[in-house]
Design a protein that fits this description.
Keywords: FAD, Flavoprotein, Oxidoreductase
Radius of gyration: 22 Å
Shape: globular
Number of helices: 9
CATH architecture of the largest domain: 3-Layer(bba) Sandwich
Distance between the termini: 57 Å
Strand content: 25-35%
CATH superfamily of the largest domain: FAD/NAD(P)-binding domain
Protein name: Reductase C-terminal
Helix content: 10-25%
Structural class: alpha/beta
Largest sheet: 6 strands, mixed
GO molecular function, one term: oxidoreductase activity, acting on NAD(P)H
Strand order of the largest sheet: 3-2-1-7-20-19
CATH topology of the largest domain: FAD/NAD(P)-binding domain
Oligomer: single chain
CATH class of the largest domain: Alpha Beta
InterPro entries: FAD-oxidoreductase/Apoptosis (IPR050446), FAD/NAD-bd_sf (IPR036188), FAD/NAD-binding_dom (IPR023753), FAD/NAD-linked_Rdtase_dimer_sf (IPR016156), Reductase_C (IPR028202)
Pfam family, one: Pyr_redox_2
Number of domains: 3
Length: about 400
Amino acid sequence: MNTESPAHVVIVGASLAGLRAVETARDSGFKGRITLIGEEPHLPYDRPPLSKEFLQEGPPTTAHHLPEVDTLVDDPNIDLALGTRATGMDASNHLIRTSDGFEILYDAALIATGVRARVLPGSDRLAGVHVLRTLDDAGAIRAGLDAGARVVVIGGGFIGAEVASAAARRGRPAVVVEAAATPLVRAVGTTAGAALAGLHARHGTELHCGVGVTALLGNSRVEAVALDDGSEIPADLVVVGIGADPATDWLRGSGLTLDNGVVCNENMYAGDDVWAAGDVARWNNPLFGRHMRLEHWTNAGEQAVHAMTNLLDPLEATAYQHVPYFWSDWYGRRIQFAGLPIGEPTVVSGAFDGDEFVALYREDDRLVGVLTLDRRGDIMKYRTRIARGADWESALEIARKRNKSVSHA
């Protein structure tokens, strides 16, 4: 590892993590050259609204570009390479190859290439079949919704649920197809997954669980989705939400360790003056004593700040300790989660079949996770306690006090 301040930093990935890394470098007083490589032609933009406000009926309300992008445009010592893919890396020689044929030398690099949405085999031959990852994806899905398309969502995860919610709020409920018996089991557990699935039924969305997709039917445009129970669902718009994989293909042969992402130590260091952040980074989170890779907007920003700080001063590098957090909006309801979904949760306020709830997750005697529905004032209290390593009894005491205050409100 080079312990001197780098003269040239290359950041691969121009979404939130890449932008936060640039901001951190400049805010830290780094005046050297920065090259930011981004596969999309757009300046960094806000991704979470793409599956939320952007799909709502009426004029788009999303402010596409993050306000901090002026940092990129106005700084003469920042080279923007948008619409450019990184195609290879030689980490030992500090070199990155790009799709336009250039080879870029660097003193230190930060990888923030995120993930690629999984696709169904053969789906690229049919118009009307989309994933939802980019601004262009969201624009195509919105156009289908505007045209009154019959919507089928493949995958019962959070992104798919938000698309279904948008369709329902336009008065054309979608059909959601989920291969597992219960959606969201890995994300929140079986009982909580079943409870959240109930929101679909309450708002007219048809949910098929425990059934797989065998084919997308149509000539040049999708017309139906064939299921393995022999049924067919008519469709003009199919949104595929079956997960994503870290965007590391270009790093094969780079010399870095790849295993469900770019493998880093607790400081976000991957080796050979390379650091990583965001959805692509798999690191040892000392707060939980686990290796993890997160596909969360909050983590991408916070992790990029930490990784760039360490990159600029590696001798003073510190461990990145993070309590995962994400939110999702379904049918006008706010779902929030913090921590890890270990085991099945205990409802400590409200009820799974009610209008709101707080559910806690434990590992041995430690609070490790919290899931809430329409309890925005609770989630960060518990997230703070998780970060402090709160025990289970102290978590229950918070719930008792909160329930008492709510009952007297």
